[in-house]
Design a protein that fits this description.
- By secondary structure, the chain is of the alpha+beta class.
- It contains twelve helices and 34 strands.
- Strand 31 and strand 32 form a beta hairpin.
- About 4% of the residues have low confidence.
Length: 663
């Protein structure tokens, strides 16, 4: 994947036209079939693997009639790039010249990615011979495959290209395919994935194939982890590679970069997931956060009215006990949080000042929506609509936004900071009573309050946001909505086998009504939620529980070849078992990859305050993965490196000049 381009195939490397197979560009399947036959048969593929997020390698052998013994004389290497380039090289170990008949059968339906993903791709298009390859046409678009060398024979009806390759003894020959997308008009070649913002592609001249543009640079530093548990190193590297494959430029401003949600369902900007990924990658620099915030600032509702200040976003299923939630609300509340924390990590002051008016409008919306005339529950944020319900995680987002937003406003001398802090204090007082459900186990937070104020007490992973309080100045964390006793009780609930599957935190406890291990909001393990829980537990002093969740994620990552899906089944871990991916999970997924980085970097316990010139290092004393060394991080836009011993002692090895170590 190298968005807006990507390729999907099985481990054989053959694109069969079935399922999701194909080369895609700008949300359209440019090529659905690319089947290779040599000497009348398919190659025997002995290995197919990713060499990176945007490239794959398939290694096979060719058996020819009359060969003796088990050792093949001809081997094949098939190198595929997400941008539509494929190089097929045949290597000969024969002592004699070999003539090799090669056929490649091609086809496409030019279907939209969304239609392919739900199993409705449409009929295959008719091919025409075009230059050194084939061409297919649909309404306003054309797919072109060109080859080098040109084939000796090209048959349009079956979509067949043929070569007779002469391999000298010990020699090799290569066929290269280039797949491109042409447009009839200069209209943006955009696509709309369900539930995402429209992401148009760059304009093209009529009839001109889009050439491979330079991939966006990695908007983060070249961070590296070295750990006693080398699986952690592999997970960190693979996650950052996957995130690079999801990086996209904002068509309205090419310098602004964000990450798409993931393949196959959301290959465009999803505001909440983009903000979460940017926030979790702040230890690797503020460039991604700045680009994401600028892109979303352009979408903010500016017209007067009830939605003034909101950042658009679709509804999201919330499981069996609640109506869908509104990602617009979460994105609007995340915006000031990400800006405030980016400032602590070293976002330049001029960039903070540029984005501050957008954050102020978000906070103004917050104060407006929580105090509508005649609403008896005016202190809580309703989600998705006025009148409730009132979700615990939404109140956590609102509380964090208010406190970190007040921090931002105070830095510029705004008088609104005090009012936000007072509102947050009132919310803490009422929340600890209204949202706490007493039971025989000692109590737990309610998942939500209904419109009439009735608590719905089922235990789920949405409660993780109650411990994600946000970073303030001086390396201090903001206060949370729960008191210390309630935090301890929630930690015990998460540690129980009802919530901890052994592979991560379930979306809902196994004893709750409606539990389903494959329920994406009612039992499946979400990597994002588990990472937030682990980091929150560590900050609250529950390091043993945090370490258990961290090791569970690492064990799951090992079984997924370090490309974690967005979610996987919450079935209880057993000896010799492996977690099963959710059938609707994005993979790669921005929030899963960013959460993996977040949970690993958090082992060092970094809490910077660049405006004050300090950074605190508070690693987990339990050192759940042994000794670690993190290099290539970024604090104050300068390189930062830290080492943590097996005894949990942290030592800064590289830091910006003048940055002081805080307490």
């Amino acid at each position: 994947m190298a968005l807006p381009a990507l390729a999907v195939s099985p481990a054989s490397g053959q694109l069969t036209g079935h399922g999701m197979d194909g080369f895609y560009r700008d949300g359209r399947r440019v090529l659905s079939r690319c089947e290779l036959r040599v000497a009348g048969d398919e190659p025997l593929v002995v290995q197919g693997r990713l060499n990176g997020a945007d490239r794959a390698r398939f290694l096979g052998t060719i058996r020819r009639a009359g060969e003796r013994g088990p050792d093949p004389d001809i081997r094949m290497e098939r190198l595929r790039s997400a941008d539509g380039t494929e190089r097929i090289t045949f290597h000969s170990s024969s002592a004699r010249p070999v003539r090799l008949p090669v056929e490649i059968r091609l086809g496409t339906d030019l279907a939209e990615l969304g239609a392919v993903a739900v199993g409705l791709p449409g009929p295959e298009r008719e091919a025409a011979v075009h230059g050194s390859g084939l061409r297919w046409s649909g309404p306003g678009v054309h797919a072109v495959v060109s080859t080098s060398p040109a084939p000796q024979d090209a048959l349009a009806s079956p979509g067949l290209l043929r070569w007779e390759l002469d391999l000298p003894p010990g020699g090799r020959r290569t066929i290269e395919l280039q797949t491109a997308l042409e447009h009839d008009t200069g209209a943006p070649a955009g696509h709309r994935c369900p539930g995402t913002v429209l992401i148009p592609g760059p304009r093209t001249r009529p009839g001109v194939p889009r050439t491979r543009s330079a991939r966006p640079p990695r908007p983060w530093t070249a961070a590296r982890l070295e750990c006693d548990d080398h699986r952690a190193d592999a997970l960190m590297a693979a996650s950052l590679d996957d995130l690079h494959g999801l990086v996209m430029r904002d068509p309205a401003a090419a310098a602004d970069i964000y990450v798409a949600r993931g393949f196959p369902w959301r290959c465009g900007l999803a505001p909440v997931e983009a903000l979460w990924a940017a926030r979790m990658l702040l230890p690797l620099g503020t460039r991604l956060a700045a680009g994401t915030l600028r892109a979303l600032a352009r979408s903010q509702q500016a017209a007067p009215g009830a939605d003034f200040g909101r950042i658009p976003g679709p509804l999201r299923d919330a499981g069996p006990h609640a109506p869908p939630s509104c990602t617009s609300i979460e994105a609007t509340l995340l915006f000031p949080t990400v800006l405030a924390e980016a400032r602590r990590w070293g976002l330049p002051e001029q960039e903070t000042e540029r984005l501050l008016p957008v954050a102020e409008r978000c906070l103004r919306w917050l104060r407006t929506v929580t105090d509508p005339p005649g609403d008896s529950r005016g202190g809580y944020v309703p989600d998705p609509a006025p009148g409730g319900p009132y979700r615990c995680e939404t109140q956590a987002h609102a509380h964090r936004a208010a406190l970190l937003g007040a921090d931002l406003l105070e830095a510029v001398g705004s008088s609104d900071a005090a009012a936000l802090r007072d509102w947050a204090a009132d919310l803490r007082t009422s929340f600890r009573t209204d949202f706490w459900w007493e039971d025989s186990a000692g109590g737990r937070p309610a998942a939500l309050l209904t419109a009439d104020g009735r608590p719905v007490p089922h235990l789920g992973s949405t409660t993780v946001h109650l411990l994600d309080t946000g970073l303030l100045g001086g390396g201090a964390l903001a206060p949370g909505l729960l008191d210390a006793t309630q935090v301890d009780q929630l930690a015990r609930a998460w540690e129980s086998p009802a919530m901890d599957s052994g592979w991560g935190l379930r979306g809902m406890g196994v004893r709750e009504s409606g539990y389903n291990p494959f329920g994406h909001r009612s039992g499946a393990v979400r990597v994002h939620d588990t990472a937030i829980a682990a980091v929150g537990l560590a900050a609250a002093g529950h390091e043993r529980a945090a370490g258990a969740l961290t090791r569970g994620i690492l064990d799951a990552a090992d079984s997924f070849a370090y490309r974690l899906p967005e979610m996987y089944a919450g079935e209880q871990r057993t000896a010799g078992g492996v977690p099963a991916p959710h059938p609707a999970a994005c993979r790669p997924a921005a929030v899963a990859a960013a959460a993996a980085v977040h949970i690993l970097v958090a082992l060092a316990g970094l809490r910077p305050d660049v405006p004050a010139g300090t950074v605190s290092v508070r690693p987990l004393g339990t050192a759940p993965l042994g000794a670690i060394q993190l290099t290539g991080l970024s604090v104050a836009e300068q390189p930062f490196a830290v080492r943590v011993s097996r005894l949990g002692m942290g030592m800064v090895e590289t830091a910006a000049e003048g940055l002081q170590l805080g307490s």
